[in-house]
Amino acid sequence: MLKGRTALVTGSTSGIGLGIVTRLAAGGANIVLNGFGDAAEIERLRRELAAKHRVSVVYDGADMSRPESISSMMQKALAEFGAIDLLVNNAGIQHVAPVDDFPVAKWDAIIAINLSAAFHTVRAALPAMKQRRWGRIVNVASAHALVASPYKSAYVAAKHGIAGFTKTVALEVAEQGITVNAVCPGYVLTPLVQQQIPDTAKARGISEEAVVRDVLLAAQPTKKFVTVEEVAALTAFLCSDEAASITGAILPIEGGWTAH
Ligand code: NAD
Q1: In angstroms, rounded to a whole number, what is the distance separating the alpha carbons of residues 32 and 8?
Q2: Which of 6-10, 28-32, 115-119, 198-202 has the lowest mean pLDDT?
Q3: What kind of architecture, by CATH, is found in domain 6-186+227-259?
């Protein structure tokens, strides 16, 4: 159980992050929500999570592409809760284009949000975790932390980078009761994936139906999308006391994709 713990999950207003905060709140953790979206809808979500699970839920709309914005969110959360016991770096964006056509601003944004943001949250969260000699960091990477696909150069570079960052920090804090792991989902049908279907169709010159069948699910031997709930359950386990000996692990949850 996570009662008395505080979890900060970046990008938790949608998709996988939303599934993770729902699961961690159900386990009794206080929650710091983060991410973009409609203000009224986010406030409705905040109230619902707090009331349903009788936990404290706050929202911070920090832009994870901006280090000073991340720093301010972390300082506010630490002041409110004393420590962030469970840190889940989940916010992420995607852009699909051939590398010689890849917009420079998209490259910079993907590296900032999908990779550098984790450095900024981790460096702010670690001192209080070290003081309590307990902490759990889970980085939501991707099967693309382990293998590549064409037209996703920035995303694959960032996700391979987060795998290396995960292992490095795990080694640095291994004796201090803090674990650091990465989960590597295959395709999960969230807005992030829905949005890339038309771009992939364009880049490959095929129909959107063919993208789902021949590109996305072709990668996964199960021929099924991974679910948000499955990724949330794995993340919650990594946040538990029972997972104390799992650290520095880059854990696939991708229907067999990287077994190929
Ligand atoms: P999503 O688009 O549903 O959610 C992304 C979340 O990140 C949203 O809450 C959004 O508001 C937030 N976000 C985006 N830019 C932000 C910024 N600059 N600052 C703060 N928040 C920001 O996507 P998802 O599929 O749930 O993806 C979540 C994570 O899972 C990402 O890191 C993604 O790379 C990873 N992932 C997704 C899949 C998949 O198939 N969906 C597979 C593997 C890995």
Answers
A1: 5
A2: 198-202
A3: 3-Layer(aba) Sandwich (3.40)
